[in-house]
Give the backbone structure.
Amino acid sequence: MKKIREKCVALLSAMLITACASSLISCSDDDGGNDNRSYAWSINTDNKITGGSISCSPDLSTNTVTVYPTANPGYTLETITVTKESGEVMNVAKNSDGVYSFTASKGEFTVSATFKENSDVAVATGTASVGDIVLSDGMRISASDALKMSPAQVGKAVAVVFYSGSSSDLLGEKTLAVGLKISDRLNWSSKYADGKENVETIRCEPSAYGKDTASTATFTGDTDGSDNWSALCDAVSDEYDASEYPA
């Protein structure tokens, strides 16, 4: 009986890890008897949650349910609420690792969460730091505020700083960032952009094209892209229009 119960607990826990909703749980022993004293409960998630999502991991051996909230970019978790079918609001504990848990008894429970929209955070000033977020309007959000950005700021994020050095560093005194849009068909400018024609001062030519050639090709022309933005701005008048320069 004990071994069968342990097997049921292990099996059902594994099955419920991937879904928060479950039905009445029961286990049978060799004699055909049922043991549902600890397992007669079900967990459902609110399907009207906006601004984020939640997932659950039930532990049937302790009747504990762990709730994992995930906020969408631009949002922050505000509350986690667990309500029993009778209308009773359950006590939910916030764990040190940022997840939540509650103890389930017999009955049906609904888990819900509210996520609030972040307000705009202040733009960064001074020297850029690794991890800073660059926006399409040329403004910068510090790395420490990256997860606090508003949805509007998230929508304007175009790059993240990966190098910010001084004259004594290997790459010298410059700031380099990598774009946040990835595509093998991403044009650097639209056909209507002022910069559609080549800006020769920032042109770089590889010795070879095609897949897996980047590690062996040599490059001539402008091999330092740290001043490309300034060169582009000197050549065009629509540099702040993100729709014209998607890359």
